[in-house]
Amino acid sequence: MPADDSSLGPDPAVEPRDSRRQRGPRSATAERSALLRRDLMEGELYEKAAQLFSEKGFAGTTLQDIATAMGVSRPSLYHYIKSKDELLERLAEDVTAAASAIVAEIANDATLDAARKLHVVIRRMIEFIAAKPSRFRLLNQSESAMPEHLAATQRRLGRQILKGVIAIIDEGQRSGVFRPVDPRVAALGIIGTWNWVAWWHTRGDIGEAAEQLAATAVLGLLAEPTDSSDVGPAALFALVHENLARLEAVVGAERRPRV
Prior knowledge:
By secondary structure, the protein is mainly alpha-helical. It has helices at about 15-55, 65-70, 75, 85-105, 115-130, 135-140, 150-175, 185-200, 205-220, 235-250. Helix 4 runs antiparallel to helix 5 and helix 5 runs antiparallel to helix 9.
């Protein structure tokens, strides 16, 4: 006599449709939960690693140090990364590539004038860095320890960020909105301002400080008219010289190659 298959449970091939429909959402929910757990775990991994790298140096930090800081075994880390080099590369991509994209997006936004672009890019970058200060400190300290291909990528992205800020300042000078200063020097000063946030901001809302720093930087470049009613000859000559330089920058805009 053939065995009674009923003891093995329902045949999946003939499982009631309603039963299969009920299992589907549970499987999707479980998958979303697993992905969320992985994202949270990777986020903690990046943060702990960035803190240890910035405190002990890249060379002085081991995967065991990172595992201990996270409260997991070292083999558990291999579910997420294969080596310290890979971890550093992911951290670099998470920070520098994202920063380059922010600057490029704003620099190319045709709906904003140059002054507004500069204000927005400074504020956005300050907020971005304040959200991940340990990662920015890590990259500032670890470039010499990076594999050459990663260091080269970092330098390339850094040049793109500088180029984007220069382009905004150059645009403002062409339109007569900004004073005729050296765009590269001004851009380096602005980038230095937002990079420094990683060292002095530790907690709390950065919004008010970001707004103040952005407004101050833009104000320092604006070509505002000066009241000459109560200044002496030397100041008037300086004002004439600045206005001539400003006019020269605007008139020569079409002949100057765009960045």
